[in-house]
Amino acid sequence: MQVEQIAVFLENKSGRLAEITATLAYHGINIRALSVADTADFGILRLIVDNVELAKKVLKDAGFTVGITNVVAVEVADRSGGLAQVLMTIEKARLNVEYMYAFVNKSGENAVLIFRFDEMDKAIAALQQDKFTILSGAQICAL
Amino acid sequence: MTTLYWEEEIETLPRVGLESIQLTRLKHLVARVYATVAPYRAKMDAAGIKPADIQSLADLSKLPFTVKDDLRDNYPFGLFTVPMEQVVRVHASSGTTGKPTVVGYTRKDIETWSGVMARALTCAGATSHDMIHNAYGYGLFTGGLGAHYGVERLGATVIPVSGGNTKRQITIMQDFRSSVLLATPSYALNLADTMEELGVDPKSLALRVGIFGAEPWSENMRAEVERKLGIRAVDIYGLSEVIGPGVAMQCLETDRGMHIFEDHFLPEIIDPDTGEVLPPGEKGELVFTTLTKEAFPLIRYRTKDISRLTYEKCACGRTMVRMEKVTGRTDDMLIIRGVNVFPSQVEHVLMGTEGVEPHYQIVVNREGNLDTMAVRVEVSEALFSDEVKTLEKLSRKIQTDIKDLLGVSCKVQLVEPRTIQRSEGKAQRVIDNRKL
Fold this sequence. Notes:
The complex is a heterodimer of chains A (143) and B (436). Chain A is α+β, with helices and mostly antiparallel strands and 143 residues long. Chain A has 5 helices and 7 strands, in the order βαββαβαββαβα.
């Protein structure tokens, strides 16, 4: 139950993010969630989109370095302690979070947490064991 | 002002006398090299030249050139002419493809070297009364130890401070009353700026003259060093293959060129494309034959430095030919903080890093007074990761590998694909923003 995420390499110069979003918009690709990791010299843009294959192709054509990584999307109730519970499960299993980001879905009742773990399969097993809701790519796009 | 000489007789010898000494030494050298070094013998045989064919200095042009590749092919000691038990020291400088160029010295070579270095120091007006601050790096690089032995030979006091730790250097200059500074010109400017930061007035120091070399520097830079430090700034030339510092030295009477110590190092200027010897005054590639070296003599070594020779009489009375400040290179070698850097070495490191594509660029800047090198590497899909730590680990690895191989630190910049300009034919690998 993993979700494909698009990652794009960004040099720190003005206009690059705008170019990426304009390229996606032009091809009618919708962004469901995104995060930017930045360092002094470069950035990495991570995106969950409704059409991964098309997004990869059009961004590559536009000259970007693009990678696809698997992440886990966990749906939790949008209330205090939602994230903390997930992290307790991960800690119990002695796993590490490489990075994460989150968004709240349209209804506002639930939040979706996107995770990259050091050991993805073990993390998914631990989350399933503790009865967390793991979403597929299609489910995220349908939210 | 009376000119000081270290060896007045030879330094002011009429040219006819000098040339006679050169010819005797050249004949002896060619005969010895032919008899003892197989690679030289093979080259001379291939060119159909025998030692007996050298009957005048003009016959020098019949001999084949020696190039850096010959040194690399015979790495490390293949061109030495004496058994290792007679070699008392080796030095090395960076080579073009990762292997350093190794040079060796007999006890007599060290004497020759400290002798020419003492001559050079005297050219700059140094005497046994001086306190000489040697900020050239000590180690495999010839700068530090070469200058060190020269100062001891002169009978002055050497402060073997080496490079770095600038604040301590300034304290030493104040407390020890350093009167002569040996350094790269960019380091001299760094010292001047640090003095300003610390509120140290250079006039309060005992510094009188600076002897600068090991990297290219312009007349503008000379004026800047002289103004900022309140000293005379003179030029020294040398390269490890020929002996190290002390091949040629500017005197105090002129800013136009450095006297080549021709009784030891016989210069020629050639057309770098045809190899033809050019007449005096023409600009071309500087070539040296070492007339007196024992362990590692060189015949017609192509330095790839661009210069010209003038036989005009010098006000100092020295009869030895002067070479103009080196104005360029025939290859793409860069000198970064006194270290020779070939783009091919950087490429070697990058190609040894998995996933790196052969699109890179070296950007050299002078920040403040220090040269900085940045290597721009395109991030291909194979290199890319969505995790910051993986990319940072990659740039750190390249940095460390370059530092290990070249001995110079650099900054690695990861850039987007196709941002490094592709050129038709020869790629522009180097952007040198230094105003030299």
